[in-house]
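On clarity, I found the account of how folds are encoded harder to follow than it need be. What matters is that the chain and its backbone geometry are given together, residue for residue. I therefore recommend that a typical entry be quoted early in the introduction. An entry of this sort, consisting of the sequence and the corresponding backbone structure tokens, reads as follows:
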Amino acid sequence: MSRAQSPQLPRVLAPLEADLACVEERYLAIVTSVSDRTRDLLDEMPRFAGKRLRPSLACVAGRVACGEVTEEVATVAAIVELIHTATLIHDDLIDAAEVRRKRATLNARFGDQFAVLVGDVLFTKAYMTAAQLEDRFASRYLSAVVDEILEGEIHQDLVTRDASLEASGYREIIRGKTAALYEAALVVGAHYGGRPDLGRPLGRYGHHLGMAFQIVDDRLDLTGDEAQVGKTLGRDLGEGKTTLPVILWRESRPETERAEALALVEAAWDDPEAAARLCARLDADGALAATDAAAEVEVEAAVAALADLPASKERDLLETIARFVLDRSW
């Protein structure tokens, strides 16, 4: 895979700066429409920041559909980001993560109970806002998407410390926990832009983009630079999660080495030295390169889905975003 220097994400999303400002305005209006005591609580949560990929995708879908980001498109983009932020807060709590977006997590700063309550408030605000839209599609559809996200998280939890997890099971997990919301961002953007028919190709693009994003994310957890990525790394092995690099390495071992490979994976869950040895083997034996190739396959599938859209600068931007995911180091 080519590892040419890619532009930073803010530069990639620069054409959407005005659209994202509108989404941020809606986002802040939603989260501040609460009592004073709850507003004080929410003042401590992450603001409309981070990568902002999901609301960006909703905006691009809206522009593909109708040539602009309408108030309803901005609203559903904000709802998607609320859902995403809520899941991140709860994920950090479950994972006991200390850093997110280069800042201390809510659970690290204020404790688990505080983080649970803030995440719950964001979910509630997302659902209430969706229910207030004249077209109730977002309310029904995004409720189903959150259900799929939770199913993915539950599946992941149930196979914790299972070194024999197959690639098919891994893909089911990341479809739920990550790709479903990427797809949803594009589907709701197209729907509220007045072209629900475009939700199918845009949704396919979003699915494959989300799959690629999570595959790269899981690779970075093993090999990334924590300061550059901006969140706590090395959690997956410590939590007993079997991700694609480990699966591909285990499956590539000769039959005579399978038992030894499983033993090293299991040791890596509890022993930092064993984890370092495993990461070295993943690199030396080509599992990291194979993981990169798997992410590239997903990106190519995402780009192929765009062929069903009319040529436009928005379609070109979607392709740029997909290519960017492969080269990211954050």
The first strand starts at residue 99 and ends at 100. The chain has a mean pLDDT of 89. The two ends are 18 Å apart (CA to CA). Strands lie at 99-100, 103-104.
